[in-house]
Design a protein that fits this description.
single chain; mainly beta; 17-stranded mixed β-sheet; 10-stranded mixed β-sheet; 3 helices; disordered C terminus
Length: 335
């Protein structure tokens, strides 16, 4: 951390009380790592290496089918899929993308990169988790193709898309970078943990949270998000009244140099409740935290003093709690 960041003094967020009302062939074992306290338990000792099913990891071969074969085989026994060091080119477009299954741990080596083959699709994901439980992704990098994307429209190219029916999901030590849309995206999941993840240089968001019940984000970094609005580190924003976000903890994480806010909470269309934002660091974002709701506070942004280094630094050492967005109209919402 730079000297200017160390010099940042803690601030107390006087607005916190008001907000409460409104609102992760054979390689050495050491090359595979996970964050302490976040690694899930596997159901069996079965392990399969994607190289054994034909993946090459040479940065040229389409390895989608080989990796999916390994995932499907591990799912039958509740085991672990190993991805050794290398660059694995995969299709990210719908109906031909990697889909994780229940009771599977995908463990990437430190030098393993799963990279999207350039495409023109408005919507894609390098990895997809849907209708699956007890799933984990540990280590490595998911890399998008924002610099080679041949389409001009859309903003929904994701690194990891966690969608309807996904539950008990652990993502640990994973980097998602250079996506046409978001590094990570959650819509319709329950009980999700993000530990020591990094979202870097994604075009729209580091992480979008559309619908979830039970999410913990800790020791993670969201940085350099820019390209299309809102360019937030994390955006909590249900799209319609059927989608709710509840019971989210964001703590001990960093939000650095995002073109938009470090964290945005947008509760205009549906309920957002029990959001805890604690012990996080903010530097170089447009705003540290922005809250938008239907209570007359269209854009509540929180700044602090300008430092001698010419930038802004923020550290929320107090607890920001959004217990319930009481400003929303209850009509049409499922409680």
């Amino acid at each position: 951390m730079s000297a200017s960041r160390k010099a940042a003094s803690p601030i107390s967020w006087i607005a916190a009380s008001l907000l409460a009302a409104c609102l992760a062939f054979a390689q050495p074992a050491a090359s595979f790592s996970a964050s302490p306290g976040c690694a899930p338990r596997t159901l069996s000792s079965f392990v399969i290496n994607v190289r054994e099913r034909g993946a090459r990891g040479d940065g040229q071969t389409d390895d989608t089918s080989a990796i999916q074969r390994a995932i499907d085989e591990a799912a039958k026994k509740g085991g672990t899929v190993l991805v050794p060091n290398g660059t694995y080119m995969v299709s990210a477009v719908r109906d031909n993308r990697l889909s994780l299954k229940s009771n599977v741990t995908l463990r990437l080596a430190t030098g393993a990169v799963v990279k999207a083959i350039p495409n023109d699709s408005e919507k894609y994901s390098v990895l997809h988790i849907s209708d699956a439980s007890n799933v984990a992704v540990i280590g490595g990098t998911l890399e998008g193709e924002r610099d080679q994307h041949s389409g001009k429209t859309g903003e929904w190219g994701m690194g990891l898309w966690i969608s309807e029916g996904a539950e008990h999901v652990t993502i640990s030590g994973v980097t998602a970078a250079k996506m046409w849309g978001d590094g990570f995206y959650i819509q319709g999941a329950n009980d999700v943990k993000f530990c020591s993840i990094t979202a870097d240089n994604n075009r729209r968001q580091g992480l979008s949270i559309i619908q979830v019940n039970g999410l913990e984000i800790k020791n993670s970094t969201f940085k350099n998000t820019r390209g299309t609005r809102p360019s937030a580190g994390i955006d909590i924003e249900p799209d319609n009244e059927e989608q709710h976000v509840a019971n989210v903890r964001i703590h001990d994480s960093q939000f650095l140099d995002n073109a938009g806010p470090g964290i945005a909470v947008v509760a205009k269309k549906s309920l957002v409740s029990n959001i805890e934002i604690t012990r996080n660091q903010f530097f170089g974002n447009h705003h540290p935290v922005v809250i938008k709701g239907a209570c007359g506070r269209e854009n509540a942004a929180y700044d602090s003093e300008e430092l001698g280094g010419g930038g802004f630094a923020y550290i929320d050492v107090t607890e920001l709690m959004i217990s319930k967005n009481k400003c929303l109209r209850p009509r049409g919402h499922r409680q």
